[in-house]
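Worked example 3 (structure in, sequence out).
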């Protein structure tokens, strides 16, 4: 059987995997990036929103081929329809940004990895792996051909409940209460009050999560929601159909695409590395537990993973102790804030629809200075004595 050797093998070419491959290659490692799909980025499993600040921090220049919409504000809607508008002409919007076309964006990120020197293998399935004395040997299949890849470091970027992580002995299983069922339509014919504003709907419309409308230009938008199955008897699809039927913006719209997927919202996985092994992105829980967003944090974590992997290759040291530099960086830059957002999410889950309506009413009488997840939580603490009691020491 054919054996291919490399320094770093990245399994999964989403944003996390491509970022890992890019930064490992930029720093001198020999890298192979594989993905089981024929087309990187398709099908999308994402509402496609990213922050401008996040892209800027990572040095990624927006491109008109993958930015479908630049947003000018945020609208929050409580169960009884009370809405809170935050527009860029009134407040700073550090975390509002762009709506992407993920099918194009993910390919662009993979292309960046290729330009950095990584070899890309599409329609290539990792079927299993075994420990070798100085790395792992991964069994692969592509277009009916079986072969193996021997790598000093294997990076699992293969999504929630990573098989790669499990093969290497990491605990990547996600508890049901921490796995949101996400579902969305891409729709045409929307009638939004403002097609430049992103909308979030809270309460029993999406138990355990929220519903969203992310405009993509003209009368097109991603319309979806995330739920936690342990707190509702309905399926995510049933909740989505009900939301579309009742929401004024979507009543006359029609779906042209359906996307489904799991979103791990339990915070960052405790252990991200073992000897010769790393996990990144959804596989590592690099998803904001409160918002469910993970594109920027996946790219950021991938950058850290690639840099540490390349340094380990130069030092010829692939031990867990050496690779822990990546885990520690992720904890400091990502995981610590996720711990706070997880506690905030648990608090919000305890609120009734009437509680949310009261908070929205209080928000309407508040002047905003900027918008970020952290600032909104601070405001929540300010307007709600119950929130002050539960969350006051966190922020």
């Amino acid at each position: 059987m054919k054996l291919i050797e490399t320094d770093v093998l990245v399994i999964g070419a989403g944003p996390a995997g491509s970022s890992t491959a890019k930064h490992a290659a930029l720093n001198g490692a020999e890298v192979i990036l594989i993905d089981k799909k024929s087309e990187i980025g398709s099908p999308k499993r994402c509402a496609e929103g990213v922050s401008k600040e996040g892209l800027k921090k990572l040095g990624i220049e927006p491109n008109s081929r993958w930015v479908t919409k630049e947003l000018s504000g945020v609208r929050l809607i409580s169960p009884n329809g009370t809405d809170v508008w935050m527009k860029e002409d009134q407040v700073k919007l550090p975390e509002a940004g762009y709506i992407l076309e993920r099918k194009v964006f993910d390919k662009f990120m993979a292309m960046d990895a290729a330009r950095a020197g990584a070899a890309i293998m599409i329609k290539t399935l990792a079927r299993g792996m075994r420990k070798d004395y100085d790395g792992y040997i991964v069994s692969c299949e592509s277009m009916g051909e079986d072969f193996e890849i021997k790598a000093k470091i294997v990076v699992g970027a293969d999504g929630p409940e990573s098989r790669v992580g499990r093969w290497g002995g990491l605990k990547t299983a996600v508890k049901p209460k921490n796995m949101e069922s996400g579902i969305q339509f891409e729709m045409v014919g929307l009638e939004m009050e403002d097609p430049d504003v992103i909308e979030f709907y809270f309460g029993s419309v999406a138990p355990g999560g929220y519903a969203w409308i992310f405009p993509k230009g003209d009368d097109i938008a991603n319309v979806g929601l995330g739920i936690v199955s342990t707190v509702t008897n309905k399926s995510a699809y049933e909740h989505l159909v009900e939301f579309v039927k009742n929401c004024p913006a979507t009543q006359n719209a029609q779906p042209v695409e359906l996307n489904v997927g799991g979103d791990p919202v339990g915070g960052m996985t405790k252990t991200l590395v073992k000897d010769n092994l790393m996990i990144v992105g959804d596989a590592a829980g690099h998803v904001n537990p409160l918002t469910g967003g993970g594109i920027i944090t996946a790219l950021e974590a991938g950058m850290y993973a690639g840099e540490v992997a390349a340094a380990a290759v130069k030092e010829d040291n692939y031990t867990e102790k050496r690779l822990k530099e990546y885990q520690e960086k992720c904890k400091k830059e990502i995981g610590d804030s996720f711990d706070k957002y997880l506690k905030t999410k648990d608090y919000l889950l305890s609120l009734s629809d009437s509680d949310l309506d009261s908070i929205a009413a209080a928000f309407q009488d508040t002047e905003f200075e900027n918008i970020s997840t952290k600032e909104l939580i601070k405001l929540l603490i300010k307007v709600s004595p119950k929130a002050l009691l539960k969350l006051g020491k966190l922020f």
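Notes: The first helix runs from residue 15 to 26. The mean pLDDT is 92.
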